[in-house]
Amino acid sequence: MEFGISDALQIIGSLAFFIYGMKMMSEGVQRAAGSQLRNILRAMTKNRYLGVLTGFLVTALVQSSSASTVMTVSFVNAGLLSLVESAGIMMGANIGTTVTGWIISILGFKVKLSAYSIPLFAIGLPMLFSKFGRLKYWGEFIIGFAILFMGLSFLKDAVPDIKSNPEILDFLQHFTEWGIWSRILFVFIGAIATIVVQSSSAAMAITLTLCAQGWLPFPIAASMILGENIGTTITAELASIVGNTNAKRSARIHSMFNIIGVTWMVILLPILLPILSYVLQNFFGAIDPYSPDGMPIGLSAFHTAFNLTNVLLLLGFVPLLVKAAIWSVPSSGEDEETEGLKFISTGTLTPELATIEVQKEVARFGDIVSRMSGFAFSLLNANKDKKKAKFLKKLSKYEEITDNFELEITQYVSKLADKKMTNKTSRRLRSFLNMCNDLERIGDLYYQMSKILEKKSEDGIYFLPEQRNQLSTMFELINSAFEIMIENISNPHYDKVNIQKAIVAEEAINTQRDLMKEYNLSNLGTPEYNVNSAMVFNSMFSVLEKIGDHIINVSEDITGNIE
């Protein structure tokens, strides 16, 4: 039997077709149901048991454990999920990913795939041209499903049939006689295959296809399935690299859970496989998992049984897994408070799912900008040069931070803008950009204020007690407006935000500005009222009023782009 470069390219191309179909299917359903997926993850993670159910449902829906785990790591990074909650979701994702194996083994090897894929194209293609965004994305999901089936069909045809030439696989006998070391070897091979194709579902499809064609015996294929469970953890680990400490710990929990499970299963494999074979042959239609025809069903059953048992065994040890993750990923000890983005971690999510990360980052941006108000007030009231220098330096540093925040968030949103998204998501991202522009401008105004106060100190200008009191009142009003603004930004439901409180706060700032302006003008020309002091006073309340304008702009940005 000849096997050349052309045959190898046929296999690679068929696999690429399969992976592309799965990617299209996964992204289509994420776009169509992105907000619902976010709500499911937020609402159904009250405890680890609900987390398992959530992970199973989401993974079964998007047909990708990698998408589920990356999503989970991102939400831990964004502070939406705790480590315990994320552990439950990832355990459930391991069970959910076995659904793919069942689809492949039942439909992929029992029926003619073209009987499914062609009608699916007929249904999905008209949906792609729909004016309704959600219907269009469901069309992508259906067509992705059809492409997945066609890729699997091509893969079956591309893999040579060696049933009539079994001697070709005689070399495998040399690797199956080493006991537990043989199982470890094929676990390693399965993990490498998954890392290379970056999809446990694709690696599973390869394994099932090779089994159906008679390439692999059942114990070896089972070992490779175990390896694929380890290989799939690399996706979450990669996603966590640019995340915060908790994101790395969440990915580590996933890795430890899979490695522990694979370890006990590798040891017990010679005992459990005959039991599984007995059950399948006597209770499920006389399926022989050791035969090429029965092996795909046998492997799917093994995959599900293993992951389900592993979850049941380790679910009670989640607190210990969390402690081990915290120990293995210690806190960096660095001040993550203001140096850079904290929640935005990866560009692998669809825009619908990534908006939650951006929202958390913009809310943090607002909180950082609001701190500048405290620094400016402390600078105003500082009476020692050392303290003045300290707050001048802080305001200068924070002004640079606000510039970097706007730049990095804008760059991230710009990358998302290149992807397909719903109109609602597009409006949401546009509102984020507008908010960042206003927040960055507030940072500039506080820096401008620091320069005004620095010049005041150098020139030996002093404020009267009444001037200080009025400025203190203005700062209090600004701080109240900041609190309302941050509350509005942090609201997960922008369409339900009511900015009436923000409008009232803005009106109070304008009223105070008018009082200060009247006070300043009415006292000019009196002997005790210094002209230079009056000019600085005027500059201060004018800058504070502009800050108030940008604060209300942020809340208006929230509601202005939501239908």
Report the sheet with the most strands, covering strand number, pairing sense and barrel closure: none
Order of helices and strands: HHHHHHHHHHHHHHHHHHHHH
The N- and C-terminal alpha carbons lie at a distance of 64 Å
Calculate Rg over CA atoms: 31 Å
Number of DSSP helical runs: 21
Number of strands: 0
Class by SSE composition = mainly alpha
- DSSP helix fraction: over 70%
The global form is elongated
Regions with pLDDT < 50 over 5+ consecutive residues?
Answer: 162-170, 333-338
- Report the mean per-residue pLDDT as an integer: 79
The share of residues in extended strands comes to: under 5%
Instruction: Estimate nothing, just give the exact number of structural domains.
Output: 2
Could you explain how this protein is built, in words?
By secondary structure, the protein is mostly helical. The protein folds into two domains: 5-161 and 174-328, no CATH class; 351-560, Phosphate transport system protein phou homolog 2, domain 2 (Methane Monooxygenase Hydroxylase, Chain G, domain 1, Up-down Bundle). It has 21 helices and no strands. Mean pLDDT is 79; it is low at 162-170 and 333-338.
Features of this protein?
single chain; 2 domains; Methane Monooxygenase Hydroxylase, Chain G, domain 1; 563 residues
Present the secondary structure layout.
Elements: H1 5-32, H2 34-43, H3 48-62, H4 65-77, H5 83-96, H6 98-108, H7 114-128, H8 133-158, H9 180-197, H10 200-212, H11 218-231, H12 233-240, H13 245-283, H14 295-314, H15 318-328, H16 351-381, H17 385-417, H18 423-458, H19 465-490, H20 500-523, H21 531-560
